[in-house]
Inverse folding.
Protein backbone atom coordinates (compact mmCIF):
# COMPACT_ATOMS: atom_id res chain seq x y z
CA UNK A 1 0.00 0.00 0.00
CA UNK A 2 1.42 3.39 -0.99
CA UNK A 3 1.98 6.27 1.36
CA UNK A 4 -0.87 8.74 1.24
CA UNK A 5 -0.12 12.43 1.73
CA UNK A 6 -2.23 13.76 4.56
CA UNK A 7 -4.05 17.06 4.61
CA UNK A 8 -6.05 18.84 7.28
CA UNK A 9 -9.71 18.16 6.52
CA UNK A 10 -12.68 20.37 7.21
CA UNK A 11 -16.38 20.20 6.65
CA UNK A 12 -17.74 23.74 6.23
CA UNK A 13 -21.37 24.57 6.73
CA UNK A 14 -22.75 28.02 5.96
CA UNK A 15 -24.97 29.01 8.87
CA UNK A 16 -27.22 31.79 10.12
CA UNK A 17 -26.50 30.65 13.69
CA UNK A 18 -24.69 27.85 15.50
CA UNK A 19 -23.64 26.78 18.95
CA UNK A 20 -21.71 24.03 20.65
CA UNK A 21 -22.43 22.68 24.13
CA UNK A 22 -20.56 20.48 26.58
CA UNK A 23 -22.56 18.85 29.39
CA UNK A 24 -25.50 21.14 28.63
CA UNK A 25 -23.41 24.34 28.83
CA UNK A 26 -23.00 26.45 25.67
CA UNK A 27 -19.24 26.93 25.25
CA UNK A 28 -19.29 28.67 21.87
CA UNK A 29 -21.85 30.31 19.60
CA UNK A 30 -21.99 32.49 16.49
CA UNK A 31 -24.53 34.27 14.33
CA UNK A 32 -23.89 34.23 10.58
CA UNK A 33 -20.77 32.56 9.23
CA UNK A 34 -19.34 29.08 9.01
CA UNK A 35 -19.26 26.02 11.21
CA UNK A 36 -15.91 24.33 10.62
CA UNK A 37 -15.58 20.69 11.67
CA UNK A 38 -11.80 20.22 11.63
CA UNK A 39 -9.97 16.90 11.34
CA UNK A 40 -6.19 16.60 11.65
CA UNK A 41 -4.28 13.73 10.07
CA UNK A 42 -1.19 11.99 11.44
CA UNK A 43 1.14 13.56 8.86
CA UNK A 44 -0.29 17.08 8.93
CA UNK A 45 1.96 20.05 9.58
CA UNK A 46 1.58 23.76 10.32
CA UNK A 47 1.77 24.58 6.60
CA UNK A 48 -1.39 22.54 5.99
CA UNK A 49 -3.17 24.58 8.67
CA UNK A 50 -2.02 27.88 7.14
CA UNK A 51 -3.26 26.89 3.67
CA UNK A 52 -6.61 25.76 5.03
CA UNK A 53 -7.08 28.95 7.07
CA UNK A 54 -6.35 31.03 3.95
CA UNK A 55 -8.85 29.01 1.96
CA UNK A 56 -11.59 29.18 4.61
CA UNK A 57 -11.47 32.98 4.97
CA UNK A 58 -11.36 33.59 1.20
CA UNK A 59 -13.71 30.86 -0.04
CA UNK A 60 -16.65 32.48 -1.81
CA UNK A 61 -19.65 30.67 -0.32
CA UNK A 62 -21.89 33.61 0.64
CA UNK A 63 -24.44 35.18 -1.66
CA UNK A 64 -23.70 38.55 -3.20
CA UNK A 65 -26.17 41.04 -4.64
CA UNK A 66 -26.80 38.92 -7.74
CA UNK A 67 -27.69 35.90 -5.57
CA UNK A 68 -24.54 34.02 -6.59
CA UNK A 69 -21.98 32.67 -4.16
CA UNK A 70 -19.33 35.32 -4.73
CA UNK A 71 -18.59 36.68 -1.24
CA UNK A 72 -16.15 35.38 1.35
CA UNK A 73 -16.28 35.18 5.11
CA UNK A 74 -14.22 38.38 5.22
CA UNK A 75 -16.55 40.11 2.76
CA UNK A 76 -19.65 39.42 4.88
CA UNK A 77 -18.01 39.92 8.29
CA UNK A 78 -18.94 36.39 9.33
CA UNK A 79 -17.64 34.35 12.24
CA UNK A 80 -16.45 30.76 12.59
CA UNK A 81 -17.53 28.14 15.08
CA UNK A 82 -14.68 25.62 14.95
CA UNK A 83 -15.18 22.13 16.38
CA UNK A 84 -12.50 19.42 16.46
CA UNK A 85 -13.65 16.34 14.56
CA UNK A 86 -11.17 13.46 14.47
CA UNK A 87 -13.85 11.23 12.94
CA UNK A 88 -13.24 12.98 9.60
CA UNK A 89 -10.29 10.58 9.40
CA UNK A 90 -12.46 7.52 9.98
CA UNK A 91 -11.65 4.83 7.43
CA UNK A 92 -14.60 2.58 6.62
CA UNK A 93 -13.11 0.73 3.64
CA UNK A 94 -12.85 -2.52 5.61
CA UNK A 95 -15.50 -3.78 7.97
CA UNK A 96 -18.25 -1.90 9.74
CA UNK A 97 -16.25 -0.23 12.50
CA UNK A 98 -14.28 2.87 11.45
CA UNK A 99 -10.53 2.82 11.88
CA UNK A 100 -8.90 6.05 13.00
CA UNK A 101 -5.25 5.17 12.36
CA UNK A 102 -4.90 8.13 9.96
CA UNK A 103 -6.03 10.64 12.62
CA UNK A 104 -3.32 12.58 14.44
CA UNK A 105 -2.42 11.76 18.02
CA UNK A 106 -4.34 14.00 20.45
CA UNK A 107 -1.42 16.27 21.44
CA UNK A 108 -0.54 17.06 17.82
CA UNK A 109 -4.19 17.36 16.78
CA UNK A 110 -4.90 19.83 19.60
CA UNK A 111 -1.84 21.90 18.70
CA UNK A 112 -2.87 22.15 15.04
CA UNK A 113 -6.52 22.77 15.95
CA UNK A 114 -5.50 25.65 18.23
CA UNK A 115 -3.14 26.96 15.55
CA UNK A 116 -5.90 26.85 12.92
CA UNK A 117 -8.21 28.90 15.17
CA UNK A 118 -5.38 31.38 15.84
CA UNK A 119 -4.67 31.71 12.10
CA UNK A 120 -8.34 32.52 11.44
CA UNK A 121 -8.24 35.17 14.18
CA UNK A 122 -4.99 36.56 12.72
CA UNK A 123 -6.88 37.07 9.46
CA UNK A 124 -9.59 39.09 11.21
CA UNK A 125 -12.26 36.43 11.68
CA UNK A 126 -14.06 36.11 15.04
CA UNK A 127 -13.74 32.49 16.19
CA UNK A 128 -15.68 30.53 18.78
CA UNK A 129 -14.70 26.97 19.62
CA UNK A 130 -15.86 23.78 21.17
CA UNK A 131 -13.78 21.99 23.77
CA UNK A 132 -11.07 19.74 22.38
CA UNK A 133 -11.63 15.99 23.04
CA UNK A 134 -14.94 16.61 24.86
CA UNK A 135 -18.25 15.03 23.92
CA UNK A 136 -20.02 17.97 22.31
CA UNK A 137 -23.47 18.76 20.96
CA UNK A 138 -23.51 21.04 17.93
CA UNK A 139 -26.66 22.92 16.93
CA UNK A 140 -26.83 24.90 13.71
CA UNK A 141 -29.08 26.38 11.10
CA UNK A 142 -27.48 25.53 7.77
CA UNK A 143 -28.26 28.18 5.14
CA UNK A 144 -28.74 27.06 1.55
CA UNK A 145 -28.01 24.40 2.61
CA UNK A 146 -24.32 24.82 1.83
CA UNK A 147 -21.93 22.10 3.03
CA UNK A 148 -18.43 21.60 1.61
CA UNK A 149 -15.51 19.26 2.26
CA UNK A 150 -12.25 21.24 2.06
CA UNK A 151 -8.64 20.10 2.46
CA UNK A 152 -5.64 22.30 3.19
Amino acid sequence: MGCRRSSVRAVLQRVSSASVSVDGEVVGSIGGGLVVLLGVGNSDEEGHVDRLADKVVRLRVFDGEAGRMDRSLLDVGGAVLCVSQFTLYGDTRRGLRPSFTDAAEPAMAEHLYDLFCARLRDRGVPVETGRFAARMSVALTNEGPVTLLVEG
Notes: The CA atoms of residues 38 and 84 lie 5 Å apart. The chain is about 20% helix and 40% strand. The beta strands are 9-22, 25-30, 33-39, 62-63, 69-71, 79-84, 127-129, 136-151.
